[in-house]
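Standup, Tuesday
Yesterday: got the pipeline producing structure tokens again.
Today: sanity-check two examples.
Blockers: none.

Example 1:
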Amino acid sequence: MNHRPGLGDTMLKLAIAALVALLAGCSAKGPKLVPVSGKLTLNGVPLAHKTIQFIPEPGTPGSGAGATTTATGDYSLIATKGGSLVDCMGTCPGRYKVVVVEPMFPVDAELKVPVEGEQPAPAIGLPGTPTRKREKQPIPPAYGNARYTPLAVTVPENGGEIALELKAGR
């Protein structure tokens, strides 16, 4: 009698692959990550609560990294690693284009947890996110596009501090 692969075999293989990916997390396997932090400024003034994306240029390993700046403009990069359930601090050494945008959701918003009997939260957006008038973005538009951003940096082999200085009028 010949064994023919069926749905059970396929599901077992998928479960094993998912388990391996889950256990890998931010292990030593994969590209080397180095710590990177710094301050984001616009004409010398710290930019609070902005999203930063490091997009690898050709020849740089990994998938890039990102961060959200603090109230004082400080940031620490977190690598983007598919399948990881924990934050992987840092990014791979190499050359990056840097994109700076407003966060998708207000970073400083207090989330309201609905109680039983209240109207359900909207289907789009964070539940309980207060609506607020969008302020004019202080980020010059070119910095929000990976193709046109004038900001490029090199992350050294040991990582370190990288100041990101935006200039108005770009």
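Example 2:
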Amino acid sequence: MKEGQSLTYQFRRGNKLEKENKQEGTKGKKFLVPDTSAILTGSVNLLEENIIVPSMVLWEIAKGKAARILREQEEMLKVVKPQESSIVKIREQAEITGDLKYLSETDIEVLAVALESNGKIITNDYSMQNVAKTMGIEFEPCGIEPIKNEIQWSFRCRGCRKIYEENIKECRICGHKVVRFRKVE
């Protein structure tokens, strides 16, 4: 987190919703910012003091089958919504890396919260890890091997196999769909 900036989050105590400002994780620990997959796989204990949960992660889970997980712990969660400027920075970087098309709005919010809080993301999403790596955001995988190096993407036509460096939807030569693949150096 940048000097002079604090993270504002909502902390639920019973039916009361309070706002608190924090400079860093509790007891000197780094904030951990789980994505939806980290919560669904049980990779994080949501009640730990240094866990902050992006608001869209809660929304994403609340509309699914795992909503009961949240209902049991909802009163104790620290819920965070990032500033729009952080979301814009994440979008810009994801466009540069070629990952924007593969990130959901929730993924972008998780990255933005981690950027603002200088936190560590817990995710199994390679696109999120790639954007995080290029921005200096720490990440920890849940259930998969982490990426070791920044991923460079190229794009290949499914029909004629022409390779493009930019992300386009269909081939300019034959009109087939263009898909992304990891560039091998």
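Quick observation on example 2: The CA atoms of residues 112 and 164 lie 29 Å apart. The helical segments are 36-40, 55-62, 67-73, 84-97, 105-117, 126-135.
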